[in-house]
């Protein structure tokens, strides 16, 4: 996909953050946009920012498998084709394995992993039929390394990475016209930390302040990096200098990165 003009792009979680920034960046490239979120007010604001493009908005809970498949059919009916799907919607949870409830574990997996998996599978036949498709799944730097109190988020994001990298190989081996990219953002200045669920012993305010300190990249910069990666057909799109650093750390040290994370966590998470 060397040119995004007149391509139909689907973006989940488009009501704020990276999703909104992606919508704006894609509109500037001439995309026709199918934007979804559970936050209808935020989604309306995003659509207004993309007023130069053809935009349709949809209320969508990505934890609902049947709703995702119905959404895929509706987008095809509304636009006649689908070229680009960005499975971006996500949530956060900070809790130790000991304290995490089954409800919270299921909540984050249903959105952060199953939302991506069902979103990919629902739209894949339409992307293949377009003759020029691209799947973009949002993982995280926490899909590259494990971090204390992020076990559930790590589980979801590692799963997204494995699922997406496997799909990319399948599309190539089967010679199907769908490119596949996995995105690993570092700290992005969004509201994800403010809306995160916390374990009962977590210091929510301290964690949110800590996140604000390490959030190095604006959503607009993140979106531009992702769009460039799409146009270059990059298999792994790293977003932000911290993402590049963490990726390098993992590549160089392998599992030996863990003592470094433990030292950082002892100072910043176990307080």
TrEMBL record:
<dbReference type="InterPro" id="IPR020904">
    <property type="entry name" value="Sc_DH/Rdtase_CS"/>
</dbReference>
<protein>
    <submittedName>
        <fullName>SDR family oxidoreductase</fullName>
        <ecNumber>1.-.-.-</ecNumber>
    </submittedName>
</protein>
<comment type="similarity">
    <text>Belongs to the short-chain dehydrogenases/reductases (SDR) family.</text>
</comment>
<keyword id="KW-0560">Oxidoreductase</keyword>
<dbReference type="InterPro" id="IPR036291">
    <property type="entry name" value="NAD(P)-bd_dom_sf"/>
</dbReference>
<dbReference type="GO" id="GO:0016491">
    <property type="term" value="F:oxidoreductase activity"/>
</dbReference>
<dbReference type="Pfam" id="PF00106">
    <property type="entry name" value="adh_short"/>
</dbReference>
<dbReference type="InterPro" id="IPR057326">
    <property type="entry name" value="KR_dom"/>
</dbReference>
<dbReference type="InterPro" id="IPR002347">
    <property type="entry name" value="SDR_fam"/>
</dbReference>
<feature type="domain" description="Ketoreductase">
    <location>
        <begin position="7"/>
        <end position="191"/>
    </location>
</feature>
């Amino acid at each position: 996909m060397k040119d995004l003009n007149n391509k139909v792009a689907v973006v989940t979680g488009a009501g704020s953050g990276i999703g909104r920034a992606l919508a704006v960046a894609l509109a500037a490239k001439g995309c026709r946009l199918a934007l979804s979120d559970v936050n209808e007010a935020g989604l309306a604001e995003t659509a207004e920012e993309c007023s130069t493009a053809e935009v349709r908005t949809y209320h969508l809970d990505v934890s609902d498998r049947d709703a995702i498949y119905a959404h895929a059919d509706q987008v095809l009916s509304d636009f006649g084709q689908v070229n680009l799907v960005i499975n971006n919607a996500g949530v956060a949870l900070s809790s130790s394995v000991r304290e995490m409830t089954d409800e919270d574990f299921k909540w984050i997996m249903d959105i952060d992993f199953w939302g991506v998996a069902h979103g990919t599978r629902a739209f894949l036949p339409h992307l293949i039929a377009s003759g020029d498709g691209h799947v973009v799944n949002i993982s995280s730097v926490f899909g590259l390394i494990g971090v204390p109190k992020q076990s559930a988020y790590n589980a979801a994001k590692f799963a997204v990475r494995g699922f997406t990298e496997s799909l990319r190989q399948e599309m190539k081996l089967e010679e199907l016209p769908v490119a596949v990219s996995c995105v690993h953002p570092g700290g992005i200045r969004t509201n994800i930390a403010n809306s995160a669920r916390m374990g009962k012993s977590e210091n929510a305010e301290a964690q949110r302040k800590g996140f604000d300190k390490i959030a190095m990249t604006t959503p607009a910069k993140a979106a531009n990096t992702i769009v460039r990666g799409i146009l270059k057909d990059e298999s792994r799109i790293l977003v932000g200098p911290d993402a590049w650093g963490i990726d390098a750390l993992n590549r160089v040290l392998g599992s030996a990165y863990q003592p470094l994370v433990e030292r950082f966590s002892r100072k910043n998470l176990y307080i």
